[in-house]
């Protein structure tokens, strides 16, 4: 009793050692011992091991619990003095604790709240109808929720709070409590209240404490395990003054550098904004900085690979360079690209095109133009004929100051270097992309945003964008250790090859050199534009191009249109775009990307044909990978098991929908979007019926 009377004994475990009772005696009650201040009793035992085991069990059980309880006093003291309002509830939302800051903010006394369910308290009518349901759904999954919420004080006033609710997971992985941190949301009408609630933010405290500021900055900025603390190095280098001097000299030069990357400027602006921001804003900006420091800013992250193997395989096959080469496996192009030009016949003019071809080409300005009919009547040479017609319509020869004979010779050389043996990447695909590009160039907003040079560059880029394509992906070439993969360091292998070969073939012979009569400056500008567009068709930067287009073109244009409508004036959006070459570059990239993969937006019959052709090419690649013992880049494209509808659905969902939504918002393409919706419905129907082919059996 005297031990219990002292303050330090509050969390002490006291064990009563009692004599053993004989077998004929009745065991006595432990209540007198407990009332005297003991925690438990222990029957005396002559075995040291038995005594030791009892002590170990007490230490691991009651003693540790008492330690936690003793720490709880400190925790509750901290909570009582915390300037943020804190509310702790059970898993059933029964209030178990509120701190004085909560009482002050809400106007209630603690005794009025403890034991009440949250649903019993009056609610503000300023919140969205489904906000509470959304919050409950979120936190019941064990996820932290934070956001702005209106609460009603005891007086009936509604106040806007920034709330963070954290579920507390207990034994068995179940949620046992919810901890809510609340502070007044910073608005003009309650700034005065905020000023006495939050005298200084975390950021301000960092400013007042050099030690805290340094540790905070290193925590934020030096994420890598091998990042080096300047002070730790200099403090260890007292015996090496020259090293220390060099270090300080280098640091001084770094801080005085005037060359600053755009991302550095962004981070510096955010850091500056944090200094005078409320805690909630500073924390949000910290998360922004975390995202900016990642390397893949534009690529969305897929879930587990098992969720959708079709999407995962498409992403793996189209957006990565695959594994590296395996020794002994080399893939070399079978085609001889050093084509001689001596066999070319004397070019005819556009007026000498056979009537059956000319009749087809009369419809080439329509989106529903059937490229496969042109492929058939031209004996798989649609690119020359379509190219002559389209280039004439856009005045390419006039811009380049070249003859129609030179243009025709050039088109023949380019088409001859497409592989007719490829089921998909052949000159018909090139002609299809050229047709789509020309169609987009005819749209008013596109036409108003680009110069004549941009139009010529786009048409040439579309024509050459897949020249000498081997019918295999970049990943395959890298895995196989092909000559091209080695030449281009496994980076944008095919796209680099397409542009390089096209310019080699063009400038090799005066008869087909369409650039021979333009001045050097025009040529360099045109060449750079063509290269940039072809490289944009490489899928590893797909999401980067789309996101840049949305943020730099779509959003500013939508904002300008909104303001112009409100002012009652016409929008000068396209004029503003034309003033910035970077914006024109983004438009050209987006245009050729959409043209390159426009198959799902073509009329259904054309869409089905293209889907069959690309699937066959992927099947052939999988077959060859298995034959050569190479890694199989896209396992779902096995001709014996593949579901073509599933692959098309995945491709549309992951790559097409967002991109064409953005392009449609700019260029206005209702016909394409209608075809896309119809085609998607076709593939979904087949998939629901477990059909793996291009059409239903009855349609076949």
From TrEMBL:
- Sequence ranges assigned to domain PAS in this UniProt record: 78-121
The residues listed in the UniProt record as binding AMP, with positions renumbered to this chain, are: 425-429, 466, 596, 648
Does the record's keyword annotation contain Hydrolase? yes
**Annotated binding of Zn(2+) 2, by residue:** 466
Keywords in alphabetical order: cAMP, Hydrolase, Metal-binding, Phosphoprotein
Q: In which pathway does it act?
A: Purine metabolism; 3',5'-cyclic AMP degradation; AMP from 3',5'-cyclic AMP: step 1/1
Ranges for the PDEase domain? 349-690
Its family remark reads: Belongs to the cyclic nucleotide phosphodiesterase family. PDE8 subfamily.
NCBIfam families (alphabetical): sensory_box
Record's protein name? Phosphodiesterase
| The organism of origin for this protein | Pelecanus crispus
